[in-house]
Protein backbone atom coordinates (compact mmCIF):
# COMPACT_ATOMS: atom_id res chain seq x y z
CA UNK A 1 0.00 0.00 0.00
CA UNK A 2 2.83 2.43 0.89
CA UNK A 3 4.56 1.70 -2.41
CA UNK A 4 1.40 2.40 -4.40
CA UNK A 5 0.87 5.69 -2.57
CA UNK A 6 4.42 6.83 -3.38
CA UNK A 7 3.75 6.20 -7.07
CA UNK A 8 0.81 8.59 -7.27
CA UNK A 9 1.24 11.07 -4.40
CA UNK A 10 3.93 13.72 -4.32
CA UNK A 11 5.07 14.10 -0.70
CA UNK A 12 7.69 16.67 -1.59
CA UNK A 13 10.71 16.57 0.65
CA UNK A 14 8.80 14.76 3.38
CA UNK A 15 9.38 11.09 3.93
CA UNK A 16 6.42 8.72 4.01
CA UNK A 17 6.62 6.58 7.14
CA UNK A 18 6.98 2.82 6.89
CA UNK A 19 3.86 2.26 9.06
CA UNK A 20 1.79 5.06 7.55
CA UNK A 21 -1.18 2.80 6.79
CA UNK A 22 -1.27 1.44 10.34
CA UNK A 23 -0.82 4.87 11.91
CA UNK A 24 -3.67 6.27 9.78
CA UNK A 25 -6.10 3.35 9.44
CA UNK A 26 -9.05 5.29 8.04
CA UNK A 27 -9.35 6.86 4.59
CA UNK A 28 -10.08 10.25 6.13
CA UNK A 29 -7.07 10.09 8.42
CA UNK A 30 -4.70 8.88 5.68
CA UNK A 31 -5.93 11.52 3.21
CA UNK A 32 -5.41 14.29 5.75
CA UNK A 33 -1.88 13.05 6.51
CA UNK A 34 -0.90 12.94 2.83
CA UNK A 35 -2.27 16.42 2.26
CA UNK A 36 -0.16 17.76 5.12
CA UNK A 37 2.94 16.09 3.63
CA UNK A 38 2.23 17.44 0.16
CA UNK A 39 1.54 21.01 1.31
CA UNK A 40 4.23 21.06 3.91
CA UNK A 41 1.81 22.15 6.65
CA UNK A 42 2.52 21.09 10.18
CA UNK A 43 0.33 18.18 11.24
CA UNK A 44 -1.21 18.18 14.70
CA UNK A 45 -0.41 14.90 16.40
CA UNK A 46 -3.12 13.45 18.66
CA UNK A 47 -1.92 12.33 22.04
CA UNK A 48 -2.69 8.83 23.25
CA UNK A 49 -5.20 10.27 25.72
CA UNK A 50 -6.98 12.13 22.93
CA UNK A 51 -7.14 8.99 20.83
CA UNK A 52 -8.59 7.02 23.73
CA UNK A 53 -11.16 9.75 24.39
CA UNK A 54 -12.22 9.66 20.76
CA UNK A 55 -12.66 5.89 20.85
CA UNK A 56 -14.59 6.00 24.10
CA UNK A 57 -16.83 8.76 22.78
CA UNK A 58 -17.56 6.77 19.65
CA UNK A 59 -18.09 3.31 21.08
CA UNK A 60 -19.16 3.77 24.70
CA UNK A 61 -22.60 5.17 23.87
CA UNK A 62 -25.35 2.55 23.99
CA UNK A 63 -29.03 2.87 23.23
CA UNK A 64 -31.01 1.08 25.94
CA UNK A 65 -32.94 -1.94 24.76
CA UNK A 66 -36.60 -1.06 25.22
CA UNK A 67 -38.24 -3.55 27.54
CA UNK A 68 -41.47 -4.77 26.01
CA UNK A 69 -44.23 -5.23 28.58
CA UNK A 70 -46.85 -7.95 28.52
CA UNK A 71 -49.52 -7.14 31.08
CA UNK A 72 -52.49 -9.09 32.45
CA UNK A 73 -55.32 -6.75 33.46
CA UNK A 74 -58.49 -7.46 35.39
CA UNK A 75 -61.46 -5.13 35.55
CA UNK A 76 -61.35 -3.94 31.93
CA UNK A 77 -65.17 -3.82 31.93
CA UNK A 78 -65.14 -1.39 34.85
CA UNK A 79 -64.57 2.34 34.74
CA UNK A 80 -61.03 2.39 36.13
CA UNK A 81 -59.97 -0.81 34.35
CA UNK A 82 -61.18 0.47 30.97
CA UNK A 83 -59.15 3.65 31.34
CA UNK A 84 -56.10 1.71 32.54
CA UNK A 85 -56.43 -0.43 29.40
CA UNK A 86 -56.52 2.76 27.31
CA UNK A 87 -53.35 3.99 29.01
CA UNK A 88 -51.51 0.70 28.53
CA UNK A 89 -52.22 0.11 24.84
CA UNK A 90 -51.22 3.70 24.01
CA UNK A 91 -47.68 3.11 25.28
CA UNK A 92 -44.91 2.04 22.91
CA UNK A 93 -43.31 -0.17 25.57
CA UNK A 94 -46.47 -2.28 26.00
CA UNK A 95 -46.63 -5.16 23.54
CA UNK A 96 -49.83 -6.89 24.65
CA UNK A 97 -52.50 -6.57 27.33
CA UNK A 98 -54.31 -9.74 28.38
CA UNK A 99 -57.76 -8.67 29.57
CA UNK A 100 -59.03 -11.27 32.03
CA UNK A 101 -62.82 -11.11 31.91
CA UNK A 102 -65.60 -13.24 33.35
CA UNK A 103 -67.35 -14.45 30.20
CA UNK A 104 -68.61 -17.56 28.37
CA UNK A 105 -65.74 -17.58 25.88
CA UNK A 106 -63.05 -15.32 24.45
CA UNK A 107 -65.37 -13.83 21.84
CA UNK A 108 -67.90 -12.95 24.52
CA UNK A 109 -65.10 -11.47 26.61
CA UNK A 110 -63.95 -9.30 23.70
CA UNK A 111 -67.50 -8.15 22.97
CA UNK A 112 -68.05 -7.21 26.62
CA UNK A 113 -64.88 -5.16 26.72
CA UNK A 114 -65.67 -3.34 23.49
CA UNK A 115 -69.19 -2.57 24.73
CA UNK A 116 -67.86 -0.95 27.89
CA UNK A 117 -65.17 0.96 26.00
CA UNK A 118 -67.83 2.39 23.71
CA UNK A 119 -69.95 3.39 26.71
CA UNK A 120 -66.98 5.27 28.15
CA UNK A 121 -66.25 6.90 24.78
CA UNK A 122 -62.68 5.64 24.58
CA UNK A 123 -63.11 2.75 22.12
CA UNK A 124 -61.94 4.63 19.02
CA UNK A 125 -58.76 5.84 20.71
CA UNK A 126 -57.34 2.39 21.43
CA UNK A 127 -54.77 0.25 19.64
CA UNK A 128 -56.99 -2.83 19.86
CA UNK A 129 -54.39 -5.02 18.15
CA UNK A 130 -52.54 -5.08 21.48
CA UNK A 131 -55.55 -6.37 23.40
CA UNK A 132 -56.13 -10.09 24.06
CA UNK A 133 -59.49 -10.83 25.67
CA UNK A 134 -59.54 -14.05 27.71
CA UNK A 135 -62.61 -15.58 29.36
CA UNK A 136 -61.48 -16.35 32.90
CA UNK A 137 -62.69 -17.37 36.32
CA UNK A 138 -60.39 -15.81 38.92
CA UNK A 139 -61.72 -18.15 41.62
CA UNK A 140 -60.27 -21.14 39.73
CA UNK A 141 -56.65 -22.13 40.45
CA UNK A 142 -55.58 -21.67 36.81
CA UNK A 143 -57.98 -18.74 36.31
CA UNK A 144 -60.29 -21.02 34.33
CA UNK A 145 -57.84 -21.10 31.40
CA UNK A 146 -56.71 -24.20 29.56
CA UNK A 147 -53.20 -25.34 30.41
CA UNK A 148 -51.67 -24.23 27.11
CA UNK A 149 -53.06 -20.68 27.35
CA UNK A 150 -52.03 -20.36 30.99
CA UNK A 151 -48.47 -21.56 30.30
CA UNK A 152 -48.15 -19.34 27.22
CA UNK A 153 -49.20 -16.28 29.19
CA UNK A 154 -46.97 -17.16 32.14
CA UNK A 155 -43.96 -17.66 29.86
CA UNK A 156 -43.83 -14.01 28.81
CA UNK A 157 -45.88 -12.03 31.32
CA UNK A 158 -44.12 -9.04 32.91
CA UNK A 159 -46.87 -7.69 35.16
CA UNK A 160 -50.41 -8.08 36.52
CA UNK A 161 -52.67 -5.12 37.31
CA UNK A 162 -55.66 -6.14 39.42
CA UNK A 163 -58.47 -3.59 39.03
CA UNK A 164 -61.44 -5.94 39.44
CA UNK A 165 -63.14 -6.16 42.82
CA UNK A 166 -66.67 -6.56 44.05
CA UNK A 167 -68.12 -3.16 44.94
CA UNK A 168 -71.06 -4.27 47.07
CA UNK A 169 -71.17 -2.12 50.20
CA UNK A 170 -73.57 -4.48 51.94
CA UNK A 171 -71.47 -7.67 51.86
CA UNK A 172 -69.63 -8.79 54.96
CA UNK A 173 -66.08 -10.08 54.94
CA UNK A 174 -67.05 -13.76 54.64
CA UNK A 175 -68.86 -12.99 51.37
CA UNK A 176 -65.62 -12.02 49.64
CA UNK A 177 -64.05 -15.50 49.56
CA UNK A 178 -64.12 -15.69 45.75
CA UNK A 179 -62.55 -12.24 45.45
CA UNK A 180 -59.80 -13.09 47.90
CA UNK A 181 -59.09 -16.44 46.24
CA UNK A 182 -58.94 -14.61 42.90
CA UNK A 183 -56.30 -12.30 44.32
CA UNK A 184 -54.36 -15.37 45.49
CA UNK A 185 -54.54 -17.01 42.06
CA UNK A 186 -53.33 -13.87 40.28
CA UNK A 187 -50.34 -13.68 42.60
CA UNK A 188 -49.70 -17.36 41.85
CA UNK A 189 -49.68 -16.45 38.14
CA UNK A 190 -46.98 -13.86 38.81
CA UNK A 191 -44.89 -16.44 40.65
CA UNK A 192 -45.36 -18.94 37.81
CA UNK A 193 -43.57 -16.52 35.46
CA UNK A 194 -40.29 -16.67 37.38
CA UNK A 195 -37.30 -18.67 36.23
CA UNK A 196 -33.57 -18.81 36.80
CA UNK A 197 -33.15 -16.02 34.25
CA UNK A 198 -35.90 -13.60 35.26
CA UNK A 199 -37.82 -12.36 38.27
CA UNK A 200 -41.57 -12.94 38.72
CA UNK A 201 -44.00 -10.61 37.03
CA UNK A 202 -44.84 -7.59 39.16
CA UNK A 203 -48.23 -7.35 40.86
CA UNK A 204 -50.13 -4.08 41.24
CA UNK A 205 -53.32 -4.14 43.27
CA UNK A 206 -55.81 -1.29 43.02
CA UNK A 207 -56.97 -1.01 46.61
CA UNK A 208 -59.16 1.64 48.19
CA UNK A 209 -58.84 4.59 50.54
CA UNK A 210 -61.60 2.89 52.53
CA UNK A 211 -58.91 0.57 53.91
CA UNK A 212 -57.64 3.48 56.02
CA UNK A 213 -60.91 5.32 56.65
CA UNK A 214 -60.58 4.80 60.40
CA UNK A 215 -56.97 5.85 60.70
CA UNK A 216 -56.71 7.85 63.92
CA UNK A 217 -54.25 10.39 62.52
CA UNK A 218 -55.23 13.32 60.34
CA UNK A 219 -52.80 12.20 57.66
CA UNK A 220 -52.43 8.62 56.45
CA UNK A 221 -48.89 7.71 55.32
CA UNK A 222 -48.00 5.37 52.48
CA UNK A 223 -47.53 2.29 54.61
CA UNK A 224 -49.30 -0.95 55.37
CA UNK A 225 -52.55 -0.23 57.21
CA UNK A 226 -53.60 -1.69 60.53
CA UNK A 227 -56.67 -3.95 60.43
CA UNK A 228 -58.72 -1.54 62.51
CA UNK A 229 -58.07 1.31 60.06
CA UNK A 230 -60.59 -0.17 57.62
CA UNK A 231 -64.24 0.79 57.50
CA UNK A 232 -66.58 -1.74 59.10
CA UNK A 233 -67.60 -3.25 55.79
CA UNK A 234 -66.40 -6.28 53.87
CA UNK A 235 -65.39 -4.22 50.85
CA UNK A 236 -62.60 -2.54 52.81
CA UNK A 237 -61.63 -5.38 55.13
CA UNK A 238 -61.11 -7.88 52.32
CA UNK A 239 -58.31 -5.80 50.78
CA UNK A 240 -55.91 -5.65 53.72
CA UNK A 241 -52.42 -7.12 53.87
CA UNK A 242 -52.70 -9.91 51.28
CA UNK A 243 -50.29 -8.42 48.73
CA UNK A 244 -47.67 -7.42 51.29
CA UNK A 245 -47.76 -10.92 52.78
CA UNK A 246 -47.06 -12.36 49.33
CA UNK A 247 -44.16 -9.96 48.82
CA UNK A 248 -42.66 -10.86 52.19
CA UNK A 249 -42.98 -14.61 51.69
CA UNK A 250 -41.89 -14.89 48.05
CA UNK A 251 -39.86 -11.82 47.12
CA UNK A 252 -42.55 -10.78 44.65
CA UNK A 253 -42.66 -7.08 43.77
CA UNK A 254 -46.18 -6.23 44.94
CA UNK A 255 -47.49 -2.68 45.01
CA UNK A 256 -50.73 -1.64 46.67
CA UNK A 257 -52.27 1.44 45.06
CA UNK A 258 -54.59 2.98 47.63
CA UNK A 259 -57.06 4.87 45.45
CA UNK A 260 -59.33 7.66 46.63
CA UNK A 261 -62.75 8.65 45.29
CA UNK A 262 -62.88 8.32 41.51
CA UNK A 263 -65.18 10.55 39.47
CA UNK A 264 -65.96 11.16 35.79
CA UNK A 265 -63.17 11.46 33.22
CA UNK A 266 -61.80 14.85 32.16
CA UNK A 267 -62.73 14.60 28.46
CA UNK A 268 -66.28 13.23 28.19
CA UNK A 269 -67.46 13.39 31.81
CA UNK A 270 -68.67 9.77 31.80
CA UNK A 271 -69.46 8.61 35.34
CA UNK A 272 -71.00 5.27 36.29
CA UNK A 273 -74.56 6.19 37.25
CA UNK A 274 -74.84 3.25 39.67
CA UNK A 275 -72.02 4.44 41.94
CA UNK A 276 -72.90 5.87 45.35
CA UNK A 277 -72.19 9.55 44.67
CA UNK A 278 -74.07 9.78 41.33
CA UNK A 279 -76.97 7.96 43.01
CA UNK A 280 -76.93 10.45 45.88
CA UNK A 281 -76.86 13.37 43.47
CA UNK A 282 -79.73 11.81 41.50
CA UNK A 283 -81.88 12.16 44.60
CA UNK A 284 -82.09 15.87 43.78
CA UNK A 285 -84.42 14.81 40.98
CA UNK A 286 -86.28 11.95 42.65
CA UNK A 287 -86.75 13.22 46.21
CA UNK A 288 -86.07 16.89 45.52
CA UNK A 289 -83.33 17.22 48.12
CA UNK A 290 -79.62 16.80 48.80
CA UNK A 291 -77.99 16.47 52.23
CA UNK A 292 -75.82 19.23 53.67
CA UNK A 293 -72.93 16.95 54.58
CA UNK A 294 -70.12 18.22 56.76
CA UNK A 295 -67.61 16.64 54.43
CA UNK A 296 -64.58 17.86 52.50
CA UNK A 297 -64.16 15.26 49.75
CA UNK A 298 -61.13 14.70 47.57
CA UNK A 299 -62.07 13.50 44.09
CA UNK A 300 -59.88 12.46 41.15
CA UNK A 301 -61.00 11.96 37.52
CA UNK A 302 -60.85 8.34 36.42
CA UNK A 303 -58.51 8.96 33.47
CA UNK A 304 -56.06 10.77 35.76
CA UNK A 305 -56.13 7.86 38.23
CA UNK A 306 -55.63 5.41 35.35
CA UNK A 307 -52.57 7.30 34.17
CA UNK A 308 -51.10 7.14 37.68
CA UNK A 309 -51.86 3.40 37.92
CA UNK A 310 -50.13 2.77 34.58
CA UNK A 311 -47.10 4.87 35.51
CA UNK A 312 -46.56 3.09 38.82
CA UNK A 313 -47.27 -0.38 37.43
CA UNK A 314 -44.77 0.00 34.58
CA UNK A 315 -42.11 1.63 36.74
CA UNK A 316 -39.15 -0.01 38.46
CA UNK A 317 -40.54 0.85 41.90
CA UNK A 318 -40.06 -1.80 44.56
CA UNK A 319 -42.76 -3.25 46.80
CA UNK A 320 -44.66 -0.35 48.31
CA UNK A 321 -47.98 1.20 49.26
CA UNK A 322 -48.89 4.28 47.20
CA UNK A 323 -51.70 6.74 47.89
CA UNK A 324 -53.26 7.70 44.56
CA UNK A 325 -55.50 10.60 45.45
CA UNK A 326 -56.10 14.28 44.84
CA UNK A 327 -54.31 16.46 47.39
CA UNK A 328 -56.99 19.13 46.97
CA UNK A 329 -60.34 18.88 48.73
CA UNK A 330 -63.55 20.90 48.66
CA UNK A 331 -66.64 21.45 50.77
CA UNK A 332 -69.66 19.34 49.88
CA UNK A 333 -72.08 21.92 51.26
CA UNK A 334 -70.32 25.20 50.46
CA UNK A 335 -68.73 24.30 47.12
CA UNK A 336 -70.52 21.37 45.46
CA UNK A 337 -74.16 22.17 46.27
CA UNK A 338 -73.93 25.80 45.05
CA UNK A 339 -72.18 24.59 41.88
CA UNK A 340 -75.00 22.13 41.19
CA UNK A 341 -77.57 24.83 41.74
CA UNK A 342 -75.67 27.20 39.44
CA UNK A 343 -75.73 24.49 36.77
CA UNK A 344 -79.53 24.54 36.87
CA UNK A 345 -80.34 21.71 39.27
CA UNK A 346 -83.22 22.53 41.63
CA UNK A 347 -83.36 20.90 45.08
CA UNK A 348 -83.81 21.53 48.79
CA UNK A 349 -80.73 21.58 51.00
CA UNK A 350 -81.68 19.54 54.06
CA UNK A 351 -79.97 18.04 57.09
CA UNK A 352 -78.77 14.47 56.52
CA UNK A 353 -81.40 12.87 58.77
CA UNK A 354 -84.15 14.63 56.78
CA UNK A 355 -82.61 13.48 53.51
CA UNK A 356 -82.52 9.88 54.79
CA UNK A 357 -86.16 10.19 55.89
CA UNK A 358 -87.22 11.41 52.44
CA UNK A 359 -85.22 8.63 50.82
CA UNK A 360 -86.92 5.97 52.94
CA UNK A 361 -90.43 7.13 52.06
CA UNK A 362 -89.68 7.69 48.37
CA UNK A 363 -90.63 5.45 45.44
CA UNK A 364 -89.29 1.94 46.07
CA UNK A 365 -88.94 1.14 42.36
CA UNK A 366 -85.22 1.31 41.56
CA UNK A 367 -85.98 1.70 37.84
CA UNK A 368 -87.61 5.09 38.34
CA UNK A 369 -85.85 5.98 41.59
CA UNK A 370 -82.32 4.51 41.32
CA UNK A 371 -81.06 6.40 44.38
CA UNK A 372 -83.14 4.02 46.54
CA UNK A 373 -80.21 1.61 46.10
CA UNK A 374 -78.09 3.64 48.54
CA UNK A 375 -80.73 3.33 51.28
CA UNK A 376 -79.20 0.16 52.74
CA UNK A 377 -75.76 1.72 52.70
CA UNK A 378 -76.78 4.86 54.56
CA UNK A 379 -78.49 2.78 57.24
CA UNK A 380 -75.01 1.95 58.53
CA UNK A 381 -74.56 5.58 59.59
CA UNK A 382 -76.59 7.04 62.41
CA UNK A 383 -78.34 10.21 61.33
CA UNK A 384 -77.10 11.95 64.48
CA UNK A 385 -73.52 11.31 63.35
CA UNK A 386 -74.27 12.83 59.97
CA UNK A 387 -75.75 15.90 61.63
CA UNK A 388 -72.73 16.45 63.87
CA UNK A 389 -69.72 15.44 61.78
CA UNK A 390 -70.66 13.96 58.41
CA UNK A 391 -68.30 11.45 56.86
CA UNK A 392 -64.77 11.44 58.19
CA UNK A 393 -62.32 12.55 55.53
CA UNK A 394 -58.86 11.04 55.90
CA UNK A 395 -56.14 12.94 54.09
CA UNK A 396 -53.72 10.60 52.35
CA UNK A 397 -50.07 11.62 52.31
CA UNK A 398 -48.34 11.07 48.96
CA UNK A 399 -44.62 10.43 48.61
CA UNK A 400 -43.29 12.92 46.09
CA UNK A 401 -40.86 10.30 44.85
CA UNK A 402 -43.59 8.11 43.38
CA UNK A 403 -44.24 8.43 39.67
CA UNK A 404 -47.98 8.66 40.31
CA UNK A 405 -47.49 12.35 40.98
CA UNK A 406 -46.62 12.91 37.34
CA UNK A 407 -50.29 12.27 36.65
CA UNK A 408 -52.05 13.78 39.66
CA UNK A 409 -49.81 16.60 40.82
Please characterize this protein's 3D structure:
The chain has helices spanning 2-8, 20-23, 27-39, 48-59, 79-89, 106-119, 147-156, 177-192, 234-237, 242-250, 276-286, 302-313, 332-342, 352-360, 375-378, 383-388, 405-408; strands at 69-74, 94-101, 131-135, 159-162, 202-208, 219-220, 254-259, 261-263, 289-291, 299-301, 320-324, 348-350, 395-396. Residues 382-394 and 400-405 have low confidence and may be disordered. Helices cover 38% and strands 14% of the residues. The chain folds into three domains: 2-59, no CATH class; 69-260 and 300-328 and 397-408, NAD(P)-binding Rossmann-like Domain (Rossmann fold); 270-297 and 330-392, no CATH class. The strands form four sheets. Strands 3-2-1-4-5-7-11 form a seven-stranded parallel sheet, with helices on both faces. The protein has a two-stranded parallel ribbon with strand order 6-13. The chain is built from 17 helices and 13 strands. Helix 8 (177-192) links the parallel strand 4 and strand 5 (202-208). The longest helix has 16 residues, at 177-192. With 409 residues, it is of the alpha/beta class.
